[in-house]
Amino acid sequence: MNTGTALSSGTVTGTSTGPFQQPKSVVVFDLDGVIVDSFPVMREAFTIAYAEVVGDGQAPFDEYERHLGRYFPDIMRIMGLPLEMEQPFVRESYRLADRVPMFDGVTGMLEELRQRGFRTAIATGKAGDRARHLLDKLGVIHHFDHVIGSDEVARAKPAPDIVLHALDLLGARAEDALMVGDAVTDIQAARGAGVDAVAALWGECDTVELLGAAPDATLFRPADLLALCPTVAEVVG
What are the strands, taking DSSP E only, across 30-110? Predict the structure, then answer.
């Protein structure tokens, strides 16, 4: 949920490199809240899983939402909830995947990044298989060179492992990349990997908390990213 207003000092400037010291050729994206608007489906899946495993009472989704970006079992440990919730949560997430939409403007932004020569990856708190299944259903998985889930690295966000793994798979240097995320854990993971961190404010993020993490740039809509990403060939040619 947005609980504040983005600061003008953090917005995209529209210059060739924006706030960065050098141009970029790689973008690493978080998935939920950045590429897909999955929160309504996530809430429903979480509520069903809570009812099946815990029982009566209101499912504490608002608290769960504050930990998004982390791996589901890690969130369960933090919240003191049974790890057994993962199986029904994943089951319902697969069942409801057809109801998860892309954010407006994301497809066009991804297409333009590819035309400009950018390599892209997903680094998500979801399990890798579930993330790839969702992106395949949406027909956009081909826009990403790699899709990496938290179950495919030793440590999930806020540790930098998943970002470092993306860079390794892409054969990229940290200084050539930026990461776009909607959670403090994304900012922390990017920083730990030496990658510039960009805050996406178009989803259900806590704006005040996210800006408090001091991202290197702030975006209000997906198309704003293009101001930070001039054509790679023009940059290096």
Answer: none
